[in-house]
Design a protein that fits this description.
Blueprint lengths: L2 H32 L4 H35 L2 H15 L6 H7 L4 H15 L4 H12 L3 H11 L8 H24 L2
Length: 186
């Protein structure tokens, strides 16, 4: 993209940003008026339900955040990374991606911090930086998601959810490494 195209794209983006949110609000209010709904009461009911959900899942979130902090600070992440290093070398997975693969199913913010470190060390346009970006987009914070949603509805037996979700995360991780290597080279 040259300078003129970039400037035009920035103008379009700023214009859309300024218009979309107010437009959505007008559409919601207009639809509520059309349906003859007391909009303010509906808003308050939604806010009350949201606060009940928040207080229901808050203990789970606090516990998860504390566990993640302990996991990183204790050196357990580094230990597991060094333990699995021979396997990742055999699979041609760059070493900086292994902590990301381990932490991503547990913590979105922790894995984002690791990606930021990868970007600082190697650059976002490096092969490893691109792999990290693809991995972030093709995997999920599995344990966080399960804790929040299952905690909100009091599910006690997850059955096959965890193994299936972790298999999907591993597939996304390996596919990200493979496809970036295929597309961007070594």
């Amino acid at each position: 993209m040259d300078g003129a195209q970039r400037k035009g794209a920035d103008t379009v983006t700023r214009t859309l940003s300024a218009v979309v949110i107010p437009l959505v609000m007008v559409i919601i209010i207009g639809y509520g008026l059309y349906r003859r709904v007391n909009i303010f009461d509906a808003f308050l009911a939604g806010g009350t339900a949201g606060m009940k959900s928040l207080f229901g899942i808050l203990p789970t979130l606090v516990g998860l955040i504390v566990a993640i902090s302990l996991f990183r600070a204790s050196g357990a992440l580094s230990f597991i990374t060094h333990l699995l290093a021979p396997v990742t070398e055999a699979l041609s997975i760059p070493a900086p991606l292994l902590p990301l693969g381990i932490l991503r199913p547990i913590s979105g913010s922790g894995s984002l911090a690791l990606v930021n470190d990868i970007f600082k060390e190697m650059g976002p346009d490096s092969l490893v930086g691109r792999m990290a970006s693809v991995i972030m987009g093709s995997t999920e914070t599995t344990f966080y998601t399960l804790a929040v949603y299952y905690g909100a509805v009091s599910v006690e037996k997850s059955r096959h959810t965890v193994p299936a979700a972790l298999l999907a995360d591993a597939t996304g991780f390996l596919a990200g490494v493979y496809l970036c290597t295929l597309i961007y080279g070594t």
